[in-house]
Write a structure and sequence with these properties.
With 293 residues, the protein is of the alpha/beta class. The chain is built from twelve helices and eight strands. Helix 3 runs parallel beside helix 8 (196-213). The structure holds uracil. Residues 142-146, 149, 155-156, 158, 160-161, 182, 263 line the site of uracil.
Length: 293
């Protein structure tokens, strides 16, 4: 592995820490791990830019990139949303009021798109509201969008989404017959776990989304959505495959099945057989609910 030195402006914690051992060269792997933890998970240019070598203002601009004098003035910089300040509990209250005011899924999506109370919105590229058919009778809820979902603005389109599609197909479903959403509609930077406050701020929206979609069966994918929506005492490996009830704010009771998250199944393929059992249960219950039996 190539060895490299940290750029001059960066701090090497291994050198400055209390128990710092004698200076050791920082490997490229260390540097990449640092970037990954800092949420830098994407290259935006083909060629790397040495930001430490770039000054704010080049001494002399090449004439060809000077804007022509007649060119209209550049538009003013986009307004910084007031909510860029760390959101507080009051945003959860506002979220509840706003979510309650939505009379349809389209309205809910528009409200979410205009909601500035969750800081995740400002690091995400797109709102990831939902995919599929809300009239299909079955709704799947995951945790939060990842990189691919953020780019496309649709839930479960990356590798775990492809596995979810195969699981749906195995029980005769696809996105024209199932509705798919997430607890958190914006990608957390670097796919970090959403904070409890971010989750509380987003909770009223997913709850209203479920209420408006009014599925006959709700499926929670993985521990975070299961914990938030079904509040079981045990973890996902114990509660998966067991029927629960989800009660909407309006009092409608929806049968709900927690199952394993496709991303977990990709890491633990031996557990696919457990998910398969859950999906067979879901298939039978959906057929009964839709009167297909
Ligand atoms: N994982 C999720 O929980 N949701 C997605 O949309 C993608 C991956």
């Amino acid at each position: 592995m190539t060895e490299t030195q940290l750029p001059s402006g960066a701090t090497d914690v291994t050198r400055n820490g209390m128990n710092a051992s004698p200076a050791r060269p920082v490997s490229l792997a260390d540097l990449l791990a640092f970037y990954r933890e800092a949420g830098v998970d994407e290259a935006v240019e083909e060629t790397a830019v040495d930001r430490f070598a770039v000054t704010d203002r080049p001494a002399s601009r090449p004439a060809e990139i000077e804007p022509p004098r007649s060119q209209p003035a550049a538009p003013p910089p986009a307004r910084q949303p007031a909510a860029l300040a760390v959101p507080d509990e009051s945003q959860a209250v506002r979220a509840r009021e706003l979510a309650r005011s939505a009379a349809s899924l389209d309205e809910l999506r528009d409200i979410l798109a205009g909601f500035d109370g969750c800081n995740l919105k400002f690091t995400a590229k797109n709102l990831v509201f939902a995919d599929g058919n809300p009239d299909g009778g079955i709704m799947f809820v995951g945790e939060a969008p990842g990189r691919d979902e953020d780019i496309e603005g649709l839930p479960f389109v990356g590798v775990s989404g492809q596995l979810l599609d195969r699981m749906l197909a195995a029980i005769g479903l696809d996105r024209s017959k199932a509705y798919i959403a997430n607890v958190i509609p914006w990608r957390p930077p670097g796919n970090r776990t959403p904070t409890p406050l971010e989750t509380e701020i987003c909770r009223p929206f997913i709850e209203r989304q479920i209420e408006l979609a009014n599925p006959k069966i709700l499926v929670t994918l993985g521990n975070p959505s299961t914990k938030l929506l079904l509040a079981p005492k045990d973890g996902i490996l114990r509660v998966r495959g067991t029927w629960r009830e989800y009660t909407t704010a309006g009092g409608t009771v929806i049968p709900a099945m927690p199952t394993l998250h496709p991303a977990y199944l990709l890491r633990n393929p031996a557990h696919k057989k457990l998910a398969w059992r859950d999906f067979l249960e879901i298939k039978a219950r959906l057929a009964a609910a839709l009167g297909d039996l």
